[in-house]
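Today's session is about reading a structure prediction critically. Students often jump straight to the picture, but the first step is always the sequence itself: look for stretches that repeat, for charged clusters, for runs of hydrophobic residues. Only then move on to the predicted structure, which in these notes is written as discrete structure tokens rather than atom positions. Here is the chain we will use throughout the hour.
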Amino acid sequence: MKTMVISDLDGTLLHSDARLSEFTVQAINSVIARGVNFTYATARSLNSSLGVNFTYATARSLNSSLTLTNRLALRLPVITYNGACIKHPSTGEIIEIQSLDEAQVALIAQTLHGCGIHPLVYTFLDGEEKVLWVRGAESEGMMHYLDSRDGDERMLPVDSFDDLFCGEVFYVTCIEDEQETLLPVRDILMGSDSLNCILQREIYRPEYWLEIMDYRVSKAHAIDDLMRLTGMEKIIAFGDSINDVPLFEVADECYAVENAVDALKRVADDVIESNDEDGVAKWLMENCNRLI
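Below is the predicted structure for this chain, in token form.
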């Protein structure tokens, strides 16, 4: 039976400094060379900050996750945007993407405007991926995110809320300093059967993120597509966060790292060593023979 091993990145494969350890890089490349089918699923986004121009037609973007994982000898496609996008691990070629339709976009825009929330809107404009936000309406957390993307060709400020939701929108993120600010938005949008919302604290900082996607978008749904594309028959999954629960629910085996949230540990088959102790890499080395 062909087995696919899939890991979350932040808080799972990456250390608390948001980097891959040398031990993890060497361990993963070693098991891949021996025949283990390894890949990752992340909430991280597409990123053209490496100087590669992205167009939807040519699908030539790199992912922010690739700046962290480019030393991994990955062969399988990777999952980004919490499942909204599946792409080639080295070229960034888009294999599948789940966009939002006009009704979904209208509901999101109306709700955010009514609650006074200014989001980041991920969209394709004239075939190029862009991230739109209203200049001058940034929260402290959003400013930190924007500062970290200095030089990113995707980033495109607009002058008003009315200019935000244009093009082919596929992902919306709200970054606020207080969770209570985002709760009304989440509750309203989750009342719609057409949307999926994930609200959680940023793993490396104090602010909160609300991610808004099509209802079909999840790591679990993307895994189904990836299995269809690759012919895999079994899933072994690793994670740390609440957004990994759907992935664990469809996996044949699932393992939470020690630093994972309690909700994920409750649905895991076992708890392994933490991300800072290279728990995933150690597990792969110990179990490599049965994965081939």
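Discussion point for the tutorial: Residues 46-63 have pLDDT under 50 and may be disordered.
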